[in-house]
Each structure stands twice: as structure tokens, then as C-alpha cells.
Design a protein that fits this description.
about 35% helix; 4-stranded antiparallel β-sheet; alpha+beta; about 100 residues
């Protein structure tokens, strides 16, 4: 699932991708992907996993999956996003 939104900090893009081998993905992100982001000058990013505790704030629906890793990154505009993703994609081929 891909979701775009605007905030006071700029535009954001969220990718939600549940996968069955979360431990392997987290290992890859720590060892390789973060370095690729850094060399592409992508600094305003964070990674999140689900908390499997019961939702105690029922007014706000949650998406919970034990195999979920979410990356949230802010870009100044769509052009910056496209340019940086092109750079990341090229570097991912070498990873």
C-alpha cells in the first residue's frame, strides 16, 4: 500500500509492506539500505514496526501485522522524491 500526504514539514510518502521474513528485512535495512539512503542524501526518514498490544484508543483504527516494517520519509516535493528514488534504485542494484 502506498499513501501520500502533506504536513507542516513537507510532503511525505508511506509504503506499507507486510512480509513474512521481517527479521531478514530489518537486518538488510540496518546493514545496507540505511547506507544507501545516506549516500543518496536522504536523511529525514524513520522505520517503524507494529506494536502487537491491544488497541486502547479505538477511535483511531490501527493496521497491525507482526511482519510489518514501515518507512516514513519526508521530501520537499515530488521532483526531489523522484530524483532520490532513481538514485536509490541504481544503488540497490549494486547492493
Amino acid at each position: 500500500m502506498k499513501s501520500a500526504y502533506d504536513s507542516v514539514y513537507g510532503q511525505g510518502l508511506i509504503f506499507i509492506l507486510p512480509i513474512p521474513r521481517l527479521d531478514k528485512l530489518i537486518e538488510f535495512v540496518k546493514k545496507k539500505y540505511v547506507a544507501i539512503l545516506n549516500t543518496s542524501n536522504i536523511e529525514n526518514t524513520s522505520f517503524w514496526t507494529s506494536e502487537m498490544a491491544p488497541n486502547e484508543f479505538t477511535v483511531l483504527p490501527v493496521f497491525q501485522d507482526k511482519n510489518l516494517l514501515v518507512q516514513i520519509t519526508f521530501y520537499n516535493n515530488e521532483f526531489e522524491y523522484q530524483a532520490k528514488m532513481k538514485d536509490v534504485a541504481a544503488k540497490m542494484n549494486d547492493a
